[in-house]
Amino acid sequence: MAQLVKLADYISRYENDLTRYPTQFIRLKRYQWKRIKNQWEYGLDLYAEQAVTVSEDVKGNEKWYSSLFGKWRRRKEGDLAEQSAETVAETDLEEHDLEFQASIPGRPSSKEQLKKEYRDQLFQFQLKWASSTLYDRSRVDPKYYSDLLLKQLTLRLPDSFLLFYYPIVKVNKAPVELDIILLAPTACYCITVLEDDRMAAYIGSGERFWLKKFGEEEVKVLNPTIALSRMEKVLSSFFKASKVELPIKKLIISRNGYIDYPGTPFEITTIDRKNYEQWLEKLSSNPSPMKHTQFKAAQAILDHAQTTAMSRLFEAEETAEE
Q1: Pairing mode, if any, of strands 201-203 and 188-193?
Q2: What is the spatial distance between Cα 313 and Cα 136, in angstroms, rounded to a whole number?
């Protein structure tokens, strides 16, 4: 399941600590799947059982914890003790906020159905991670919850892929909206999408506009290579400044339509209805783990990302006033 690092200009957990959240997400995903599968197969909630065990252990050792904490506090003085307590409190709050506990609304008839329901819940949780932190939250456009392309890319690609979905970055202090950036362990994919539910045909050329044809209807659409070239130029400058060496590949995708682009430049790959599934399957079978260069590339983009968010405290005050 690809990790949604940045969605539009929403605040993201990954902006806070890119080295921590990718591995934490993978552990969380695997643990919750093990728990919910165990519950489905045997009627037992592994999470609840472990929670009871932990609770009993804590109660049995309350005096020991109290004594140890008292000695620790007496060794600390002034601001040092205060800062340490604040750090512990902040970590506890954040871990609680990051908690994800999958649930089974009914009893799925098969493991595949169980997996589908679980992954749908995990997708909803990913949107939370991609739009909030401990202190801030962005207002999510409802369209993203039903965005089929976003769901396909996140649900079907491996954990080692990092996804930037129409991020807004700053170039010379000016906001620039990019299309889709997919950071694989060994390559960066710049993706521009041509979407039409009617299985339209796109006739490509070197001109500023392409033709979109559906039956007798013809409409001009902006040449997608323009957006791709802009994305490549922006990312190349980010990577160069951060000394990142990662090949950039440019893709034009039409999931439901057809692309006819005579003389397609060698550096651009077109993927349409005929080969979209094969392309997705090929990426899905990528066994490569995350790479250091991939993290550097992601951080280089995040360093220039624009973020719009509201303080949770301010949001709570507004709600209280209403």
Answers
A1: unpaired
A2: 8
Decide if 216 is inside a domain: yes
- pTM of this prediction exceeds 0.90: no
Whether the CB-CB separation of 234 and 306 falls below 8 Å is answered with no
The two structure tokens encoding residue 196:
């039409």
Q: How many Å apart are CA 89 and CA 11, to the nearest integer?
A: 22
Residue of 132, 97, 185 whose CA lies nearest to 7: 132
- Residue 102: inside a domain: no
What letters, b where the CB count within 10 A reaches 16 and e where it falls short, cover 83-106?
eeeeeeeeeeeeeeebebebeeee
Domain count, the chain: 1
Which tokens belong to 21?
A: 């959240």
Does residue 66 lie within any of the structural domains? Answer: no
Is residue 255 a part of any domain in this protein? Answer: yes
Cβ atoms < 10 Å from Cβ of 282 = 10
Select the more confidently predicted residue: 271 or 68.
271
| Alpha helix segments (H runs only) across the chain | 13-16, 21-42, 46-60, 62-75, 78-97, 111-129, 148-156, 224-241, 276-284, 292-302, 312-321
Domain containing 233: what range?
3-17+111-321
Residue 216 — very low, low, confident or very high, per pLDDT cuts 50/70/90? confident
**pLDDT per residue over 141-165, tens digit each?**
999 999 999 999 999 999 999 999 9
CA 269/CA 257 separation, integer angstroms? 15
Calculate Rg over the CA atoms of the chain.
24
8 A C-beta contact, residue 5 and residue 164: yes
CA distance 93 to 116: 30
What letter represents residue 256's amino acid?
N
List residues bridging with 162 in a β-sheet. Answer: 3, 183
d(CA 119, CA 225): 34
